[in-house]
């Protein structure tokens, strides 16, 4: 079935009006480029962050083009979306395609124009942090702080009120522990918001947070107002294995399509499994990837950008758990990484000309293939 040239007015707008400039990063976000303290982004640099933001907008434009090309029966677009947003009986319906196109266009519109985030529920200008040190980790046995950041007395004992004596914090800690499926939630104090947020403890260090450990790239929160994105050094192109302050300087800008594609024939690559002998799409990611991923959470809200199976980050898992390649549409349409990787893949497809046989570079298998 061939869908109409533009499956809906939304998709027409998405494909035709996104190629504009991003707003200034300092306009869209509350961000501090003068220090690395308190979540500051000095090590990343304003120019790099603006470049990442512009690259994210460019990739969203490509994502919109991918959706339009699918509707126009372009083979490369069909194969890619049918792999990363798998439906039981391809091709996708107009409604399914529109849902993908709308997500791309909403995030792009926000980068160009700003406005409310969290699916329209938060109107405050969000924070952009470049490390988790905007939060201070505490335990429930520590003294509670009020909205001025000061301790206050327990009226029954006359001593400092502890977090585990204040019912609202006891309740919130239990709720977050339940949400973390039994992982004990701990309190973190935000000096920016003058309020607590509860999250997993990550590692035992008192300075631990969302960037602790090599696997963490970024996180978006809507629990405190205004919302915030935290990007970790690894999510900003850092080459170091650990997300520690000492490794901040290794973060660097990697532009769109700056890594060369090395395709092999489609018939040579394994189906649905990882093989280090062939170049995977994950080897070609620009430094804007994590920023782009988190902006789906920021703009759309976690309620519609978090699949019921949990977020799926990897092209291949090899562990019998969901992976991006072959991910069911129901999960992929709520999975920011699926959108980001599909756009990056199609960016390479559009930028690389066809070979003598008319074949273009593709990534529907998760690998770089051609012919």
TrEMBL record:
Matching InterPro entries: MetalloPept_cat_dom_sf (IPR024079)
Signal peptide coordinates: 1-19
Keyword annotations: Signal
Domain of life: Eukaryota
GO MF annotation list: metallopeptidase activity
Protein name: Lysine-specific metallo-endopeptidase domain-containing protein
Organism: Hyaloscypha hepaticicola
Biological classification of the source: Eukaryota, Fungi, Dikarya, Ascomycota, Pezizomycotina
